[in-house]
Write a structure and sequence with these properties.
By secondary structure, this protein is α/β, with parallel strands linked by helices. It is 41% helix and 21% strand. The protein folds into three domains: 4-87, Arc Repressor Mutant, subunit A (Orthogonal Bundle); 93-161 and 265-295, D-Maltodextrin-Binding Protein, domain 2 (3-Layer(aba) Sandwich), CATH 3.40.190.10; 164-261, Periplasmic binding protein-like II (D-Maltodextrin-Binding Protein, domain 2), CATH 3.40.190.10. α2 (19-26) crosses α3 (30-44) and α5 (100-117) crosses α9 (276-291). The longest helix is centred in the first third of the chain and has 28 residues, at 60-87.
């Protein structure tokens, strides 16, 4: 059987995609890491890391063995946690990845609650786009992800945290409720590629993703997009929980007639996870905060986050 150290080197290689960077992360020399990888492969009887690709990747055999290697790594992690708990030295750290259009309101609102209710857990929070968040979960560089779902991946545990109504910011349209067709002659202002709200807007508003106008701009944050809408006209989509942080004229925020587009906000983690108990606590705090006293939305349409 390959050793815990050899497994850690394999996962470092998969994370950093480079022998030298993986060796530096593991605080060993590159020859030491290479030698231990070779020993692990000899034990398994298969080459698992393809050295000829750039960046390095798993071989065909490596891809088939990866779920087993990941399960063994998780078992070693669980054993290490239990030993630390028995010794009284365990200190949990939860690495959280959140997409920007959620983190901008959720982190300031709930960070103090997380600290008060799970104060013995160190939180390491980073903003990631949806594709990068899913990759980080698979590579175990984060423990818990918060994004717009649903996510179709059986390797992940998925929990609905709350539903968030999506509204339209359109100062030039005077009515409080509008039909989707009224937006066809208005200029759409989009977040940059990789943000799921961009894809949701393209799908919902039936936009041509390949079409460019001579005054097109793609921003990375909603505050900037609303300023461009105010300055140049047009419209953009606004998640309802984001609105209090934008200082917008409420008369410029529109609802769609007859139905309610929503983002389904989900929490994600790997099925085998030594930190699941603390992750569940974090999710419960979010659910209580966002669902308390909230009226039920009617005629909802869940906007897909990907194409």
């Amino acid at each position: 059987m390959i050793s815990p150290v050899q497994l850690s080197y394999i996962f470092a290689l998969l994370k950093h995609k480079n022998f030298q960077r993986a060796a530096d992360a593991c605080h060993v020399t590159q020859p030491t890491l290479s030698m231990q990888l070779k020993k692990a492969e000899d034990t398994l009887g298969f080459i698992i890391i393809d050295r000829d690709t750039n960046p390095i990747s798993l071989t065909v055999a490596g891809k088939k063995l990866y779920p087993n290697l990941s399960a063994i790594q998780s078992a070693y992690d669980e054993l290490d946690v239990q030993v630390q708990r028995l010794k009284g030295t365990y200190k949990s750290e939860i690495r959280i990845g959140i997409i920007p259009t959620i983190s901008n309101y959720l982190v300031p609102e709930l960070y103090s609650k997380w600290q008060n209710q799970i104060g013995d857990v160190h939180l390491d929070i980073s903003e990631l786009t949806s594709p990068n968040l899913l990759t980080a979960l698979k590579n175990k560089t984060i423990d818990f992800g918060i994004m717009a779902g649903p996510v179709d991946d059986l390797s992940l545990d998925q929990q609905i945290l709350y539903n968030e109504e999506v509204l339209i910011y359109a100062p030039t349209i005077k009515k409080k409720t509008i039909h989707l067709e009224q937006l066809q002659n208005e200029h759409p202002w989009l977040l940059s590629a990789g943000n799921c709200l961009r894809t949701q807007m393209i799908n919902f508003c039936k936009l041509d993703n390949t079409k460019k106008s001579e005054w097109n701009y793609e921003g990375g944050n909603l505050h900037l997009l609303t300023k461009m809408v105010e300055q140049e006209g047009g419209y953009t989509l606004i998640p309802s929980f984001y609105i209090p942080h934008l200082n917008l004229d409420p008369n410029h925020i529109k609802k769609i007639v007859d139905h309610t587009p929503i983002r389904q906000i989900v929490g994600l983690n790997l099925k085998r996870n030594t930190k699941k108990e603390d992750i569940i606590k974090i999710m419960r705090i979010i659910q209580r905060s966002k669902n308390s006293g909230k009226k039920e939305l009617e005629n909802i349409e869940v906007l897909p986050w990907n194409t």
